[in-house]
Design brief:
There is one protein chain. This protein has about 70 residues and is mostly helical. The chain has helices spanning about 15-25, 30-40, 60-70. α2 crosses α3. The model has no long low-confidence stretch (mean pLDDT about 95).
Length: about 70
């Protein structure tokens, strides 16, 4: 994750604090972001795609997403 993201500033992808702000209060945030971590995504934060991370388990992805949303 930290190759493309940082806690408080944009690297290649958005800062974790910006992700937390964008999804604050969204009921489906955890499920939506777990899917994006595992399957990748494009267009949400600009033209650079987020690659899929299929080796990250659903459980680990959920743990990471909850940590990010807590920023």
């Amino acid at each position: 994750c930290l190759a493309c993201h940082a806690i408080d500033h944009k690297v290649v992808g958005p800062a974790f604090v910006e992700v937390a702000k964008k999804y604050a209060g969204a009921d489906d945030a955890v499920d939506k972001l777990v899917k994006r971590v595992r399957e990748g995504a494009q267009g949400t934060w600009g033209p650079v795609p987020m690659p899929a991370n299929p080796l990250v388990s659903d459980e680990d992805a959920k743990r990471l997403v909850k940590w990010i949303l807590g920023r």
